[in-house]
Design goal:
The protein is mainly α. It folds into two domains: 1-189, Growth Hormone, Chain: A (Up-down Bundle); 200-383, Growth Hormone, Chain: A (Up-down Bundle), CATH 1.20.1250. The protein is 79% helix and 0% strand. Helix 3 packs antiparallel against helix 16. The radius of gyration is 20 Å and the shape is globular. This is MFS transporter. Keywords: Membrane, Transmembrane, Transmembrane helix. It holds the Pfam family MFS_1. The chain crosses the membrane at residues 21-40, 46-68, 75-93, 99-116, 137-160, 166-185, 214-238, 244-265, 272-290, 360-380.
Length: 398
């Protein structure tokens, strides 16, 4: 745990991770909050609710690189102001919006979502040394898992006690509070030596968006697609067994083991290549489809859980190392967009597999998506090593 203590001892790191956890928990639950509002308050179908959630997700995916580029050019506080105000207006207005207006406004809200996750990753890259960075990104991935476990559960719990409109206000308040907190903290997004040197000039996109960066973004897309598909396959398995009420237990086991895996990986003395972790994650996901009830399924997802946070952390680490500091905001925005696209595509693809071959087919489709992304990432990262700025960021030093 020495590595983690060193990271948390970095000035500003602990409050940054704490604020990010609050905001990310709300952002993780925003689509669920809108879904419950459409279904319960507007009394419309789940298909209509899904369209609103998809509109929000599409906005987030498109807005990531744009906001990242704006951070690189205009600075953090300018972008936070541009995003916090629209979030405040949108979430306050949600209970008063008719469905069609809500559908359009959700896209705009996604486009201008407070960029908590990309900013946190940029700040970690700027605030830590090369030796600390892997442990720092492991902690960031653990924070992501905790937010995933806490955010949606809190929204569902409070929705049973309060109106969907009030729940939407609460989600919006947490997002705004997170943005304000980061603005007050104003973490550095470039190291001191970068601010004086490399960051002074913004390199052209062709100089940094090469095959190695595309490989990393592809693997980020793949792991998100896998995780989205696993969530759906878990629900399908338990629905077939008549045990849907136990889904929360299985998801909790998955989340806890992911946290444990992230902590173990961050404490290791040597890194593991992203493509290898993702390939292993895909392999251990496929046999989870053999489980046919909640106790066995809880056991079956442990392997995938242990590899999830380490895989996510290596993707973030790789992006931070491959991107020059002058474009790191745009690069982390692209990473968020790739993962948002993966989450959006994973559920329908795996859903088709479940309809065709049952829940086991869902786990197989999710695992194969991870394997395909890992293979693609491996081939791309080895395609033109001489043209890359740095060596493969998640591979052991040679």
């Amino acid at each position: 745990m020495t590595r983690f203590r060193q990271v948390l001892a970095v000035r500003g790191m602990t409050p940054l991770l704490g604020i990010a956890l609050l905001a990310r928990a709300a952002i993780t639950a925003d689509a669920i909050a809108l879904t419950m509002y459409v279904v319960l308050a507007l009394d419309m179908s789940y298909a209509a609710a899904g369209a609103v959630a998809a509109s929000l997700t599409a906005g987030v995916a498109l807005g990531g690189p744009l906001l990242g580029r704006m951070i690189d050019r205009r600075g953090l506080r300018t972008v936070l102001l541009v995003t916090i105000v629209p979030q405040l207006v949108f979430w306050l207005a949600v209970p008063a919006l008719p469905y069609v207006v809500l559908l359009v406004a959700s896209f705009a809200a996604g486009l201008l979502m407070v960029p908590v996750q990309p900013v946190t990753r940029q700040a970690i890259a700027a605030m830590t040394t090369a030796e600390q960075r892997r442990a720092a990104f492991a902690l960031e991935s653990v924070m992501g898992e905790l937010s995933y476990m806490a955010g949606p559960a809190a929204v569902i719990l409070f929705a049973a006690q309060a109106s969907p409109g009030v729940v939407a206000w609460g989600v919006g308040a947490a997002i705004v509070a997170g943005g304000v907190g980061i603005a007050l903290l104003n973490p550095p997004l470039r190291a001191e030596e970068e601010a004086d040197g490399e960051a002074a000039d913004r390199p052209g996109r062709r100089e940094w968006l090469g095959t190695r960066m595309i490989a990393v973004l592809t693997m980020g897309f793949g792991v998100a697609m896998l995780l989205s598909g696993v969530d759906l396959a878990i629900i399908a398995t338990l629905e077939e067994a008549g045990q849907v009420s136990w889904a929360a237990v299985v998801v909790a086991v998955f989340g806890v083991t992911s946290v444990a895996g992230g902590l173990v990986y961050g404490a290791l003395s040597r890194p593991v290549a992203t493509w290898l972790l993702l390939g292993l994650l895909g392999l251990v996901t496929i046999p989870a489809g053999l489980a046919d009830d909640w106790p066995w399924l809880s056991v079956a997802v442990i392997g995938a859980g242990l590899l999830t946070a380490p895989t996510l952390s290596t993707v973030s680490d790789a992006v931070s190392r491959l991107a020059p500091s002058g474009v790191r905001g745009e690069a982390t925005g692209l990473q968020s967009s790739a993962q948002s696209a993966g989450f959006a595509l994973g559920a329908p693809v795996v859903g088709v597999a479940i309809d065709v071959s049952g829940p086991a087919g869902g786990f197989a489709a999710a695992g194969l998506a991870g394997l395909l992304a890992a293979l693609t990432g491996y081939l791309l990262s080895r395609r033109s090593p001489a043209s890359s700025r740095v060596s493969e960021p998640s591979a052991p030093a040679r």
